[in-house]
Write a structure and sequence with these properties.
By secondary structure, the chain is mostly helical. Helices cover 65% and strands 10% of the residues. InterPro entries: ArsR-like_HTH, HTH_MarR-typ, WH-like_DNA-bd_sf, WH_DNA-bd_sf.
Length: 147
């Protein structure tokens, strides 16, 4: 029979620390967007449209990493709220293009300000060297996972 020695780590597992931190950061970001009058799906859609004006619904869904039906649900609500308009692509009538309205542009600015403030909150108390170290640590973690 083998002797099995179970060692209790002297430090919390990195994955657990990272998962708990990611959840807390994500919740705080969602709250910041909500306080600014938006949500993560609205923010990601507006961000996609700012990066690529008059994008097709397929292009937006692909950039967000979601299914077309999920995006359609979000776009319906955004169109109802006056943030976007949808129309047929004159060169390909099967394609729906999405455009920001003036209200959508204003919402983008509100949410961009909220996102910037959230990032500043996360960076509070860190010096440049610490932030550089944090970026290297995240990069190494990704490398460790992908190897």
């Amino acid at each position: 029979m083998y002797d099995v020695v179970v060692q209790t780590p002297t430090r919390a597992p990195i994955g657990l620390l990272l998962a708990n931190t990611a959840k807390a950061v994500s919740r705080a970001f969602d709250a910041a967007l909500a306080d600014a009058g938006g949500s993560r799906p609205v923010w990601l859609t507006l961000l996609a449209l700012k990066s690529r004006p008059q994008a097709s619904q397929r292009e937006i869904a692909d950039s967000m990493g979601i299914q077309g039906a999920t995006l359609t649900h979000h776009l319906n609500a955004m169109e109802k709220d006056g943030l976007i308009t949808r129309g047929r692509d004159p060169e390909n009538r099967r394609v729906h293009q999405v455009r920001l309205t003036a209200k959508g542009e204003a919402m983008f600015q509100q949410l961009a300000d909220a996102a910037r403030a959230h990032d500043e909150r996360l960076r509070a108390g860190f010096g440049d060297e610490e932030l550089d170290t944090l970026e290297r640590i995240f990069s190494r973690l990704r490398t460790n996972i992908n190897d």
